[in-house]
Design the sequence.
């Protein structure tokens, strides 16, 4: 690990706070500057999660040697494909890339090669991998973190927010450089490259068939008529949230949906007596909420939702001992192997091998437990080659011992 050093506050960007780029002419100048720059490009994006519907970017920050820092407003510059083309051959440095890549791709910026400083920190065994902590631990600089949860759709953006945004990419390339040295020195650089490529190649998530089932507190709703109320209220809320570009929870909290499902109010007065419906936004749509409840109440039995829908994977592990004791033993054995390897190589278990792959392998193992069959099964479940080289054989041995076959 990097040796301890005196921590200095990082208070101002080196070249000051750059002006926000919000029109095509300014964007064209930035594209030319970054195309003429050299080396990796630090990139970050700010969203308005919890305030606006969806996870679009409301500010994109970039920094590159020879080009300085740019702050781009995607509301004024919604198409960054020209910047994407100009930087197509550059490595893009991000922190927690999986969070930012979707919103960057929405505006036409699609990196071909990345370096994820958070993921690098995990592979190197850093206990805390937030950007501020990593910058402090590795570079000896302290970032003031105070606006990450702000409403970045605000216009104009306050100066202190812009300073914070610019500082987020100020030393990201320097952080990348030192982490890359550590990865190379510990023999983990190729592992990191495989992980970065996997992040880039991860397909977008498939929309859930019943997204309303993720309503917080839905486990309290026990009968199908009440579940129908949850579904109708959730759907109405989602429609209103999308049309008004508000986060669904700001239109109506999940607690209100669940309480209405449990109490089944029949009048507007009864609905207003539910405390979670007293917010200004909730009151504004009171007629819509009552109509949704009444629709659920009027549904014929054949159109009511079922209590749960089967998933495409194994059941929760806490049910395995009852449903399939042999599978529970396989899972425990495989988890023990992964935990031991993770400790040996100093990284979280979930980074050494994906927990979902371990569960699926042990719930439905190959008919014949061999190094080849286990390796192929794990590979089909998304395990990377470096993970297979470390874990496949020890897991095979552990599973074979449970079958009474000794070493495989």
Sequence:
């Amino acid at each position: 690990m990097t040796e301890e050093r005196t921590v200095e506050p990082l208070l101002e960007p080196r070249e000051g706070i750059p002006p926000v780029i919000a029109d095509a002419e300014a964007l064209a100048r930035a594209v030319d500057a970054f195309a003429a720059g050299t080396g990796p490009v630090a990139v970050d994006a700010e969203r308005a999660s919890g305030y606006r519907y969806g996870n679009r970017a409301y500010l994109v920050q970039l920094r590159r040697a020879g080009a300085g820092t740019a702050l781009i407003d995607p509301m004024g510059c919604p198409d960054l494909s020209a910047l994407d083309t100009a930087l197509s051959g550059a490595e893009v440095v991000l922190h927690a890339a999986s969070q930012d890549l979707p919103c960057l791709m929405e505006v036409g910026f699609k990196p071909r090669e990345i370096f994820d400083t958070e993921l690098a920190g995990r592979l190197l065994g850093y206990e805390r991998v937030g950007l501020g902590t990593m910058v402090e631990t590795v570079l000896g600089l302290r970032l003031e973190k105070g606006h990450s949860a702000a409403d970045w759709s605000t216009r104009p953006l306050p100066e202190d927010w812009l300073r914070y945004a610019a500082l987020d990419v100020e030393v990201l390339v320097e952080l990348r450089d030192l982490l890359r040295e550590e990865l190379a020195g510990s023999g983990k650089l190729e592992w990191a490259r495989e992980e970065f490529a996997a992040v880039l190649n991860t397909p977008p998530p498939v929309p859930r068939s019943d997204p309303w089932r993720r309503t917080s507190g839905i486990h309290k709703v026990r009968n199908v008529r009440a579940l129908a109320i949850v579904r109708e209220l959730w759907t109405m809320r989602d429609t209103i949230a999308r049309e008004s570009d508000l986060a669904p929870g700001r239109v109506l909290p999940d607690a209100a949906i669940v309480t209405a499902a449990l109490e089944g109010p029949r009048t507007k007065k009864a609905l207003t007596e539910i405390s979670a419906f007293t917010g200004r936004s909730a009151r504004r749509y009171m007629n819509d909420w009552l109509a949704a409840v009444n629709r659920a109440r009027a549904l014929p039995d054949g159109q009511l939702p079922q209590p749960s829908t089967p998933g495409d994977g194994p059941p929760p592990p806490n049910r395995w001992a009852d449903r399939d004791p042999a599978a529970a033993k396989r899972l425990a054995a495989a988890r023990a192997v992964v935990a031991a390897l993770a400790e040996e190589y100093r990284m979280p278990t979930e980074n050494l091998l994906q927990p979902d792959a371990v569960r699926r392998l042990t719930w439905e193992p190959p008919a014949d437990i061999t190094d080849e069959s286990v390796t192929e099964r794990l590979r089909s479940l998304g395990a990377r080659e470096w993970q297979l080289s470390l874990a496949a054989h020890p897991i095979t041995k552990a599973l074979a011992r449970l079958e009474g076959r000794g070493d495989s």
